[in-house]
Amino acid sequence: MPHLLIKDLPRYECLIEASKRFPELDPSACEAFLHLVRAGDEAFLVVAQNLTQHQISPGRFGVLMLLAQNSCNEDCTQGVESAGMTPAELADNARVTRATMTGLVDTLERDGFVSRTTDSHDRRMMRICLTPKAHDFLEKLLPGHFRLMADLMSPLSEAERKTMVKLINKVLQHASTLNAAPVATAPAVA
Q1: Which domain range does residue 136 map to?
Q2: pLDDT digit string (tens) for 40-91?
Q3: d(CA 15, CA 31)
Q4: Residue 56, domain member (yes or no)
Q5: Which runs of consecutive H residues, i.e. helices, occur in the chain?
Q6: Domain count, the chain
Q7: What tens digit of pLDDT does each residue of 90-104 get?
Q8: In-domain check, residue 183
Q9: pTM of the model
């Protein structure tokens, strides 16, 4: 789902002009932010269209990938069969509400991609696990998905990609700091 609802970004000159009216507006920061969000939206749309062709939504795909990653981490570090994840863990990792995750898991279970099992240590807890059908689906989908990601990033050299990752991580770390800070309330409008 796109986050930036405008197709054409404002020209830098317009941002400079707007900063005269709104002194808090830093034109270069605003320009960088708008381009970052716009690039993310466009990349998301390309990936979403590809996933739609495979009859899966980006949200459901994200759940499958979280479970696959969890399975890989457990298999690689413990040499055991995946114990899956709780719906709460999935919701936290996907950054969605628990109600949203319940809906995603319900449809994935209906389509045979996940199963709900009782936690072996706490029978009150449910764990969500990938089914063999999901593993097969991902084995077929992921090569094309990875090619698409490589194609999206192909205009950048390896060095540019590394620089981009470093820069985005700086923004991400600062966003995390801002998310942890208390929200300032807006002044009352008379």
Answers
A1: 26-174
A2: 999 999 999 999 999 999 999 999 999 999 876 554 334 344 479 999 999 9
A3: 8
A4: yes
A5: 12-21, 27-53, 58-78, 87-94, 98-110, 132-153, 158-180
A6: 1
A7: 999 999 999 999 999
A8: no
A9: 0.80
